[in-house]
Amino acid sequence: MNCVVFYQQISNDLLIEGLQGQVIGEGMTIKVAINGYGTIGKRVADAVDAQDDMEIVGVTKTRPAFGCDLAVRKGYPIYCTFDEQERIDAFGKAGYECHGGLSDLLSVADIVVDCSPGKVGASNKEKYQSAGVKWIFQGGEKHAMTELSYTSSANHQENLNAQGTRVVSCNTTGLSRTLVPLYNHCGELSVECTMIRRAADPGDSNKGPINAIKPVLKVPSHHGPDVMTVKPQISINSMAVAVPTTIMHVHVIVATLPEGHGLTTDKVLSMWDSQPRIILMNGGETGITTTAEVMEFARDIGRKWGDLHEIFVWKDGVKLEGNTLYYFQAIHQESDVIPENVDAIRALMGVESDWNKSVSKTDLAISKYNNI
Ligand SMILES: NC(=O)c1ccc[n+]([C@@H]2O[C@H](COP(=O)([O-])OP(=O)(O)OC[C@H]3O[C@@H](n4cnc5c(N)ncnc54)[C@H](OP(=O)(O)O)[C@@H]3O)[C@@H](O)[C@H]2O)c1
Hints:
By secondary structure, the chain is an alpha/beta fold. The chain has two domains: 4-167 and 337-369, NAD(P)-binding Rossmann-like Domain (Rossmann fold), CATH 3.40.50; 170-331, Dihydrodipicolinate Reductase, domain 2 (2-Layer Sandwich). Helix content is 33%, strand content 25%. The strands form three sheets. Strands 11, 12, 13, 14, 15, 16, 17 and 18 form an eight-stranded mixed β-sheet that branches. A seven-stranded parallel β-sheet has the order 6-5-4-7-8-10-9, sandwiched between helices. A three-stranded antiparallel β-sheet has the order 1-2-3, with no helix packed on it. Helix 2 (68-74) links the parallel strand 5 (54-61) and strand 6 (78-80). NADP nicotinamide-adenine-dinucleotide phosphate (NAP) binds at residues 35-41, 60-63, 67, 81, 115-118, 120, 124, 138-141, 169-170, 201, 333-334, 337.
């Protein structure tokens, strides 16, 4: 059984009490395992590594392939996704030190961030439960399986000390960033939106389309309704199409505000400006008029992989007419959920109850890590 059963914050000191009575005090860290060291997993690993209150105790690979070298360079212990001795031994034969199977990794972890491919994670839940570790799944898993979902701004409090949760998908995280502050102001919100989605990640060679626009024929798409797993009070529907690009999704959003909302276009912009992880820019003035320039701007910021953790909103694409708010936003699909995973770890471990404080700590540490 792992030491973490419940975490307590006493005065200003971080004190973490475990089953066996040991207290993890200031200077000690939350031990985080990453199960699935792929697109999301490698990014979450670095974001965790950047924090002073948590550390990576290991990452898993299914086999000794592409990705192991990065883990070696970063000094993250490699474990095999599976417990079979033959599969573990394959790493040694390929020249990588493998510290054991998933069970071995779970035995030294307080919490596991499952970054396995969508729908695969569900089969891992039982392993986490029987190992007694806390767990975080990603947006490829269903809310019904995890029974709790997370975005930093929507429901950090509800996730405090929970056994496990799901950081919602990149699209849902993006919607939550701009819609939750609007809802908090208005007390009521009804939204229709269209997701224009990238066809494949830059590292994927087996997804498409490459010469078509592909509507998601399941209507409504899961993205909008998924917002209600973190903020059920927002009434929202979405439709989606996939287009041949590998970076970013664009959301076309129409929100109906209640009578007497008291907002103007400028007030909405100021509201978003005061929120973390939203970037507002004027496309006409800056020349950032498409996702290509947004991603070039992100590369200029200097985060690893050219990531953009923030949601990008074009100021000149925002208009409030009466009770109807129109806007576009762009999402870097591989990275907006990364800082949310760090905040979700703090929520589950009960070490920071204020979402804003966690967000600031997370983002500052990531900036320092990237020398920004
Ligand atoms: N990519 C995005 O844009 C994005 C955005 C937000 C959320 N998500 C969600 O994040 C999750 C991970 O997506 P991803 O894009 O990172 O996928 P990915 O790039 O395909 O990476 C998945 C990793 O999981 C490993 N894996 C395969 N089977 C496994 C198993 N049974 N148990 C544990 N790990 C296993 C693979 O390991 P090997 O490499 O060793 O084979 C691979 O490294 C999904 O739920 C996805 O929906 C993805």
